[in-house]
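Lay summary

Proteins are chains of building blocks that fold into shapes. Our project writes down both the chain and a compact code for its shape. Here are two examples, one after the other.
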Amino acid sequence: MFRALVLDKSPEFTAAVREVDDAFLPEGDVTVAVEWSTLNYKDGLAITNRSPVVRSWPMVAGIDGAGTVVDSSAPQWKPGDAVILNGFGVGETHKGCLAGRARLKSQWLVRRPAAFSARQAMAIGTAGYTAMLCVLALERHGLQPGDGEVLVTGATGGVGSVAVALLARLGHRVVAATGKAAEAAYLQGLGASAVIDRAELAAPGKPLQKERWAGVVDAVGSHTLANACAQVRYGGAVAACGLAQGMDLPASVAPFILRGVSLLGIDSVMAPLGRREQAWQRLARDLDPALLEAMTTEVTLDGAVEAAQRLMAGQVRGRIVVRTA
């Protein structure tokens, strides 16, 4: 037996920690003893039933997990291997990792870099891995330190916090946008050169605005993303990976056809293995573990529901790790 955060709808929605056994697990060729999980925005949506994230019931929450292989019929994995799971519909259509055990598909797993403990890997989680995908996309577009200011929206969130730390470590001048003025010192501690009020970006704006940003990491969407695009300098790029403000994009084609701005869509859920491995290798190289600890809060599995509620209420900064063992 092991404990799992189970989401059910029979017929009323519930989210509760339950004792289950291996028979409760789905099909898969690798069984992992999960040591740590985490709470991402999507986990918050699922656990609070704020959005129809879950599409199979009952569901074990948790789109991320880090632990050790205990059983495998796949040749690339053997008992004792340290692995990471991010995405692939886990916690949505396949029972997830907010549990003592998870049964997963071998092709979903990434070998945990030796630089990170299981806890640190989950302090990064999908949010931090997505931030690294954004940085890689901007680099492929040609962004280099010295090109100008780089904007990070939703900067006190999981994606934003890691993006600020990464970009600053790589030598960029980072401007962090947040609605939490009291967190300015936190963001400056991560490396932000300046902090602006998210209200400057959150309302409807002109199709073309004064050029400012060499690049943008946006986890917010809606008017914030539209305004960010309208403010990007000629030839710059925006990496879009989130929808905290909304799924809409009330924008104009003007920045794209008059300034050559590029909008780079970032998907972390189904990203191919090679890109995942590259992201984790770069995280191991470029993310300061001390800064990672500064942005991390720890809860137990029993505290995950309450933490998810705080996350959705905007009362959390940085990352939440969940001890599942």
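And here is the second example, written the same way.
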Amino acid sequence: MSTPARRLWRVVNPLVGVAILVGVGVYFADILSASGFDLRTLTVRYELLVPAGLLYLLAHLCWATFWVRLLHFEGVRVSGFAAVRAYYVSQVGKYFPVKGWVVVMRVGMLRHDAHAHALPVGVTAVYETLCSMAAGALVGVLLLPQLGVLPAQVTGQTTLILVVVALPLGLGVLNRVAVRLVSRRRSPAARALPSPSIFLLAQGLVHGVCGHCLLGLSLGLTVRAVVPDAPSLFETYPADLGANALAYVAGFLVAVAPGGLGPRETMLKLLLAPRLAAGLGPEAAAALAVVVALLLRVVWTTAEVALAGVLYLFRPPAAPIPHHIHHPELLDPTDQVPPPPPHHPATDVP
């Protein structure tokens, strides 16, 4: 992307994100006002919101440990604590208007903590995200029958959701082919290009599914925090799991929405309202679904920012400079650079 185009994107991206948030805010406000829903009559069971927030953090721990495995597979020598710390702190970056800050923050933190090269850190961060989103898409598609009668906004996107499922493994195959082709033209002493194992990426889907299972529980607890007469958690868990997985993927697909804010809540409203309408009218059910979606966002964001702040304070000491930097003759073959040309004073004089 050229410099003028990059500057234009930096201006347009946050403006589009703000426009989406304003539009969704107006949409939700209209739903609440049309239903006559009085927020003052809402009773919130805060004791259920604490475990809901903890489950969110544990879900991300499932994804963070997969990223650690990817880093170690690519030869990045970093401790588990430093990598998990970088993961959680970098999650704050997804709320910035311009996309990519999560990857930038991880690269910067691991360069300080482990002198890690930017390329494997950035590539593995992308694959970790794709695997977690693919797992959510897979869970959502499999559990569509559990969600009952769905609006066309959901059922019409099945093909797009399946594309998300195939992304990490498909890109993994293409990446390995590209690495082989490029390696034939590169110097044997050049740094090896990141190429995650297809088997490891498949295991990443398992990590992703585990994380989404915990997020489904978090949504179920949040629903019960504002709906006292809701059915048992075990009875509605499949529907909660499918609804949350689809909403999470929807927020990921709308790239200009910071942290998926707006699209995720809209999808949750569409998926939750039909179930909540059993004891309420359709308008009141839609309003209550909006309240649940917004409350879930507040719980998750609060837990995420609080943990990121705590972990940021516990900054590990900078890793010692590797020995081979002081002694170039001990450089690993993959890190070697061509030596400078020999200096010949007699021939260098004009």
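What can we say about the second shape? Residues 45-182+190-316 form one domain.
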